Amino acid sequence: MSVPGAAVRVFLGELAGSRSPVHTFTPLGAQIDLDAKAAVNIDVDPAFEHGVLCDVGTVEMRGTTLSVAELGYQSPGSSALRLRNVGDRPARVVLLGGTPFTEELLMWWNFVARSHDEIVRYRQLWQDADERFGAVAGYRGPVTRLSAPPLPTTRLLPNQPHTEGNPT
């Protein structure tokens, strides 16, 4: 799908009338390639929260500049997402979206859970090379898998919501 100033590739779910053929439980995943200095407005579902991960270049989202590896957040309620490539070269972002989780979640290292105890259990399963985490074929690192870092000495608490538009 093409919009003036950008190419949009929907790889999960649906966006602006374009639907991915992939069966998924994630309502939205798209790659957006922005032309140099381009600004785009993309219609989005106002019931969704949206994350924009900058992969190449520098992009402005709702007044916040995102550099490579930074994630911008747009809370539910907006029916459009405005992105602007502030650079002289093409930029690329990944857009993810869906309805907000209705429960608090904890995130630590590579794990997302509902409680501190779940994180402790998942970490142990990881350390034990449990098959639920799979294997990476062709990995040529010094060990077969990275070891999880030690857990903090205090209980993990749910993350606090991020302020509108701020990178995480």
| Total of DSSP H or I helical runs spanning 4+ residues | 1
Q: Sketch the major β-sheet.
A: 7 strands, antiparallel
- What is the averaged pLDDT score? 90
Tell me what portion of residues adopts beta-strand conformation: 35-45%
Content-based structural category? mainly beta
* 3D shape: globular
The number of distinct β-strands equals 13
Distance between the termini: 29 Å
How would you spell out the order of helices and strands? Answer: EEEEEEEEEEEEEH
Q: How many whole angstroms does the radius of gyration measure?
A: 18 Å
Low-confidence stretches: 162-168
Helix content: under 10%
Question: How would you explain this protein's 3D organization?
Answer:
This protein has 168 residues and is mainly beta. A hairpin with a 2-residue loop joins β12 (106-108) and β13. The strands form three sheets. Strands 1, 2, 3, 4, 6, 9 and 11 form a seven-stranded antiparallel sheet that branches. Strands 5-10-7-8 form a four-stranded antiparallel sheet, with no helix packed on it. The chain has a two-stranded antiparallel sheet with strand order 12-13. It is built from one helix and 13 strands, in the order βββββββββββββα. The radius of gyration is 18 Å and the shape is globular. The protein has one helix at residues 116-127, and strands at 2-3, 6-15, 18-19, 28-34, 39-43, 49-56, 59-61, 64-66, 71-74, 80-85, 91-98, 106-108, 111-113. Mean pLDDT is 90; it is low at 162-168.
